[in-house]
Amino acid sequence: MSTSPPSAGSLRRVGHKGANHIVPGNTLESFQAAVAAGVDMIEFDVLSEHPDGSGRLLLAHDYHDLGVREAVTIEQALEHLTGDAYAGITFDVDVKIPGYGARVVHALREAGVIERSLVSSMYLHDLDAMRALEPQLRLGWSVPRVKRDYTEAALTAVPALAMLAGFRLLLPARVKRVLERGRVNAIMAHWRVVTAALAGAVTDAGGELYVWTVDDPALVRRLATLGVAGIISNDPRIFAGSM
To answer: For the chain, where are the E strands, in sequence order?
Structure first.
């Protein structure tokens, strides 16, 4: 099993859904905007057409997205992303729900991008199944398991922040165990749960820490001092003045 990062060097600039604040995300146009902004990696979401995992595999964050616009298929996206304009760019393929991970692995194989891809999910058992199918595929565990940022809504902010305080204390030891057992190669953590203790635990276990979703240049600078591997942003233009 390969556990090496795709490249060594400086912090990786990752475009969330491409460049979601420049052009609506999970689209070919958003990917183009991300490259123009100088990203090293493009993150995009993959969702099955139907909740049971059947149907086409589409680029969408949730089923509301599918009702708003015509989505790109994973095959169309990968054909586009293997073009010359994306030479040297790696991918964070975020599998939103369980049930179709094997099909995502097959699509990455068919496109010849296994070595350029990091597949992430909030569901460890789904990542385990993909590891069994493709031992060379790099995997990232997304934490915490949430559908949206509950700290942004007035009614849910206080309880959400209280829960996160306890979660932050327990997380370093938990992710270190998962990494040391070889279940994943990276941790994809919301910025609110990232601490020096978490960054140290990930590094000690030989993993990489990616932080989502960061749109504040000052926060980029603070996270960079912790030695994280990459920062995921809706507006990758912020990296130019932050790093």
So the answer is: 12-16, 41-48, 57-58, 90-95, 117-121, 138-143, 186-190, 208-212, 230-233
Which positions ≥6 away from 36 have C-beta within 8 Å? none
Structure tokens at 128: 């385990």
Are the CB atoms for 72 and 27 separated by under 8 Å? yes
User: For residues 161 and 30, which has the higher predicted lDDT (pLDDT)?
Assistant: 30
Amino acid making up residue 110: E
Q: What are phi and psi of 132, to 5 degrees?
A: -65, -35
Question: Can you name the residues that pair with 60 across neighbouring β-strands?
Answer: none
- In the numeric block, which tokens belong to residue 72? 């790109």
Q: Which residues contact 88 (CB under 8 A, 6 or more apart)?
A: 40
Q: What is the mean pLDDT of the chain?
A: 91
Residues in the chain: 243
- What distance, in Å, lies between the first and last C-alpha atoms of the chain? 32
The 10 Å Cβ neighbour count of residue 181 is 9
* Amino acid at the residue 206: G
Instruction: Count Cβ atoms within 10 A of the Cβ of residue 66 and give its class: 0-12 exposed, 13-18 middle, 19 or more buried.
Output: middle
Range of the domain at 117: 12-241
Tens-place pLDDT, residues 11-61: 999 999 999 999 999 999 999 999 999 999 999 999 999 999 999 999 999
For residue 185, the domain's CATH number is 3.20.20.190
Residue 169 lies in a domain: yes
Assess contact for 221 and 242: CB atoms under 8 A. Answer: yes
Which residue has tokens 């370093």? 172
Q: What is the tally of structural domains in the chain?
A: 1
Q: Which of 73, 63, 72 is nearest to 97 (CA)?
A: 63
